[in-house]
Amino acid sequence: TRGDSWWQRAVVYQVYPRSFQDSDGDGVGDIHGILQRVDHLAELGVDVVWLSPIYRSPQDDNGYDISDYQDIDPTFGTLGDLDELLAALHARGMKLVMDLVVNHTSDEHPWFVESRSSPDNPKRDWYWWRPARPGMEPGTPGAEPTNWASFFSGPAWEYDPATDAYYLHLFSRKQPDLNWENPKVRQAVYAMMRWWLDRGVDGFRMDVINLVSKDVRADGSLLDVPVEEGPYGDPGVATANGPRLHEFLQEMHREVFEGRRDGLLLVGETPGATVEDGKLLTDPARGELDMVFTFEHVSLDHGPGGRFDLVPLDLRDLKATLGRWQAGLNDTGWNALYWNNHDQPRVVSRYGNDREYRRESAATLAIVLHLHRGTPYLYQGEELGMTNAHFTALDQYRDIESLRYAAAESERGRLSEEQLLAQLAAGSRDNARTPMQWDDSPQAGFTTGEPWIAVNPNHDTINAAAALADPHSVLHVYRRLIALRHQDPVVQRGHFRLLLPEDPHLYAFTRTLDDEQLLVLGNFSDADRTADIGPGWDDAIPVIGSHPEPSTPAHGGRVTLRPWESVVLRRT
Ligand code: TEU
């Protein structure tokens, strides 16, 4: 049983500050830049802005490596600028949610600087320090305390000769993992969170929050994981959704959020979470999170080699996966809905068709996602139907994960250069990180200088100015979808039921609330497709569709959809 929460009627927009708008010509986006573009967000109608990290950081992982949680990186501006942004958003009725990256800090954070200084330092135990594997020469390959791989290639342990010990970093070696087993670490994190709430922010998107409880034995040992292709294996089973995760989140809730004003948003990023985990994490009665980002639906096209080894999507898998999450969280918990973020290739290039049917497939992906039950998130540029970068050379890439992967693969030597470049072009996070395309000017209106990463040449046609002027653009579909979410109780709360689960091309479902019903039909293919929807829809009213002139609805229980067309029909 769930109370009625504001975020059940809300849509969230993610800003990746580095790539949104540069105001000072240094080629990197900044807070003043966001301020110049708040009206774009207001006109779109979004309720919340989630800001990727703008804290002080060496920028090893574009700000997900934080050296001071309570200051702004000079690249992006000052605390005063952030206050100004907060006020500008609030003045337009929008909220601001901050990224909270507390599974790890930067290695340049004073906590880690102290921690590494000596085994006797009071902060030594704030991170995961462990000796070499018994009988092995410290610092040599295979001597790491466990056989965990870093998510950014290579081992997850770095040897520090100064104190003859290893520290854990599930991401880059400049992102040491905090030891949440230590209550002082947790209290320091909670104090920092309270400081931001006192400053007026409206909640947090919690980075890899389900990695904070590691599966540690009573004697302090950590466990090896199964390895498919040596020497290191996916650390997931030993680090994700660990034994104390729920305890930590409930403690955080008590220490940070209890007694605060209504209107906060708490969303966790939880790679590897199952429907059962998702339900526990978002059950309001348990006092943990409002909703979580899950990964199953954005991993369906991963081949055996993972995110860089993409295989074609089978639409039946996508429907089954999202359908399982819809059903699983129907009575308890709540879904966050997304296709894109700063870590994912652009959905129109991935699950859509960014060549012949870019506008249509982007619109259909939008309509299908936003008609699900949950809170939709869109990522900057998604509202324009922005595509993958289609980079063709290694030196165009900036992302640490991509560069580490390329280095590791080159060393292994099993891929040709052409194959490697094809993998990066399909899977790299940089696909999401090319500058926002505002107009058709040389740097797309993003900067007057040299952008830190290349602007996509297709900004000559795909850009916000052009989209605004074209009533049939993807942008206008998003505006209508956001307005629909705000006003339509069936979209907000209607029960979800998947139709045609075995159809390889059509995405079909109903949403039902009391005696009102919506039918959502999406053609995920390049050919005309006819859907058998059964009787009773002949007099249904079209609500929204991907195409300027919607296909004639329902005659004799059938609807024919053009390539990548979608329609939503309402009956009472
Ligand atoms: O991402 C964590 C995550 O699970 C992955 O999507 C990750 O990006 C990686 O590519 C796995 O292949 C979060 C942030 O969103 C990401 O940008 C950070 O790099 C990461 O945590 C570390 O903070």
Automatic annotation (TrEMBL):
It is an enzyme of class 3 (hydrolase). This is Alpha,alpha-phosphotrehalase. Gene3D superfamilies: Glycosidases, Golgi alpha-mannosidase II, Oligo-1,6-glucosidase, Domain 2. Keywords: Glycosidase, Hydrolase. One of its GO terms (biological process) is oligosaccharide catabolic process. The keyword Hydrolase applies. Its EC number is 3.2.1.93. Residues 14-433 form the Glycosyl hydrolase family 13 catalytic domain. It comes from the Bacteria. It comes from Streptomyces mimosae. GO terms for molecular function: alpha,alpha-phosphotrehalase activity; alpha-amylase activity. InterPro entries: GH, GH13_cat_dom, Glyco_hydro_b, O16G_dom_2, SusG-like_C. Belongs to the glycosyl hydrolase 13 family.
